[in-house]
Structures are given as structure tokens and as C-alpha cells.
Amino acid sequence: MLNLITKERYFHKPTLHTMRSALEKMKKICAENHIAKVAMPTIGAGLDRLSWSAVQEQVHMVFDDTDMEILVCKLLL
After folding, report:
1. CB under 8 Å to 12, separation ≥6 — which residues?
2. Any catalytic annotation for residue 67?
């Protein structure tokens, strides 16, 4: 299990810059540990108030050059 740190304090809001930095670190950790599949929620959206489409674009840009499989799970109410 990986925990992405996207902000300095729990009450701060992440930015697309801090989100990208966290995603790049996750990519490096996955590569170093031969992790080929990741499941994650719609990170940054919801309470953190980032646009999921903007975060999704960052995910695509960071992991585009890999063969990693990323499954995004979304809670439907």
C-alpha cells in the first residue's frame, strides 16, 4: 500500500503541482519495487477540491511512458 503525500499539512489543499510531484514519486517507487498494477480512488477530487479531469490528465502524463495498469475506483452514491 502506498500513501500519496499531496500537501504539507492535513488542512491544506493540494495543487496540481504537488499532485504531480506525488504521482512522480509513486511512479518511481512502483518501478523500483516492480509494481505493475495500482488501484486508487479519484485522488485530489472531493474534499481536496481539485478537478478530477485535471488530476486524471496528470496521471496520464506521468504514467504514459509505462506499462502500468491503473484502476481508478469511484464511489457512486
Report:
1. none
2. no
Distance CA 71, CA 73 (A): 6
pLDDT at 46 over 90: no
Q: Is residue 64 flagged as an active site residue?
A: no
**Among 61, 19, 76, which residue's Cα sits nearest to residue 43?**
19
DSSP alpha helices (H): ranges in 1-77? 16-32, 52-63
Question: Alpha-carbon distance 29 to 33, whole Å?
Answer: 6
- The pTM of the full predicted model, rounded to 2 decimals, is 0.91
> How do residues 51-67 score in pLDDT, each as one tens digit?
999 999 999 999 999 99
Which one of 7, 27, 65, 67 is the catalytic residue? 7
Annotated catalytic residue, options 13, 25, 28, 48: 48
